[in-house]
Amino acid sequence: MSAPKKVVLAYSGGLDTSIILKWLQIEYGCEVVTFTADLGQGEELEPARKKAELMGLAPEDIYIEDLREEFVRDFVFPMFRANAVYEGLYLLGTSIARPLISKRLVEIAAEVGADAVAHGATGKGNDQVRFELSAYALNPDITVIAPWREWDLSSRTKLIDFAEKNQIPIAKDKRGEAPFSVDANLLHTSSEGKVLEDPAVDAPDYVYQRTVAPEDAPNTPEFVEIGFEKGDAVSINGVAMSPAEILTKLNELGGKHGCGRLDLVEGRFVGMKSRGIYETPGGTLLLEAHRGIEQITLDRGAAHLKDELMPRYAEVIYNGLWFSPEREMLQALIDKSQEHVTGTVRLKLYKGLARTVGRWSDYSLYSEEHVTFEDDAGAYDQKDAAGFIKLNALRLRLIAMRNRRVAKGK
Fold it and tell me: Residues with Cβ < 8 Å from 67, sequence gap 6 or more?
């Protein structure tokens, strides 16, 4: 690989990416442009600007962007139309953020004439795959630099030494080993490593950041109504809100009632298993409500087909293939299914649980006249079921007759 002349770095302002910034300048002698995305991680991002300026970057080489609305509208919501869950439990909070960051990295690289992008993901995790597959899908000629796969700064001590040697400011709490690693955005918080590495040991209470413990949640249930249009949430308790506003409000409600905690050992795309503590309060409410509105607006055949395809769709996202043709094909099918997924769902929030307790829609397929235990006034002739059962039983009867005949012949 020829040395890049200008690199756009995914930059958090933390110690690791600050070291990467300096390392790129030293190792490649290149210009560096930083990009910091506000995806709702709940941190003040101006310190990242000041940190980059301290390291010699000009203001025009520092990009800080609020992408919360685009994140929820164009990535989170399409994923939730599919009810996507990885390995039966994980709501893909980290996975779904990476394609948007990669998209902006590549776009900024084109804007500033950079020939490379760089990220701070390690060589053991999924994020390196997600960043790079997305980048190559959007620009097949881009060069991607992953310092953790190249440098010899293999320990916290070496990182600190490099920082001190190059006059990179080090926060006091960074000199010791962090108790665990955190990734956060508007959809979730993910905590991994250190005190969480033994899957047999309960996660300490201090790991949880967005949710109260269910046993400490209010003793009185709370009811919330979520309105949907074509599969996307559009209102809470009758108040119209933007996508990011909706997820922010649902996070507040879910966190208050201890909803959305998950202790998971998952199979990483790179092959190993890892243990993570996830908090997805708003996403947990959104998934429950979306399934609730689909119950009355989605035909059985469409609903069952969606459920068959969902694990594949979730795996595609988890593996970093958001910009692949298979994800786009699946998305087209899923979005077609959502044409009449419009209406309102009432959830009951209590002690860590979010349950659907009511749902209604102008597009409902539910017919009380047909399903009632009372007089249906001729809406359904129960005698019709006899022929239905006989036709469906025919193949089973033929198999049984064959088996009986074979058994007699032995």
Answer: 37, 38, 39, 100, 104
H-type alpha helices, 179-275: 243-256
Question: Which of the listed residues 177, 195, 221 is the one where a domain comes to its end?
Answer: 177
- Quote the Cα angle for 345-350-351, to 5°: 145
Residues in the chain: 410
The residues pairing with 262 across neighbouring beta strands, listed in sequence order, are 278
Domain's final residue, options 136, 155, 177: 177
Q: Are residues 13 and 136 in the same domain?
A: yes
Active-site residue list? 16, 98, 127, 181
Could you tell me which residues are beta bridge partners of residue 227? 235, 344
Query: How many structural domains does the chain have?
Result: 3
- pLDDT one-digit tens code per residue, 314-326: 999 999 999 999 9
Least Cα distance to 334 among 358, 312, 356 occurs for: 312
pTM for this predicted structure: 0.94
> pLDDT digits over 33-55, tens only?
999 999 999 888 988 999 999 88
Residues 180-235: pLDDT tens digits? 889 999 999 999 988 999 999 999 999 999 999 999 999 999 999 999 999 999 99
Nearest residue to 217 (alpha-carbon basis) of 399, 395, 350: 350
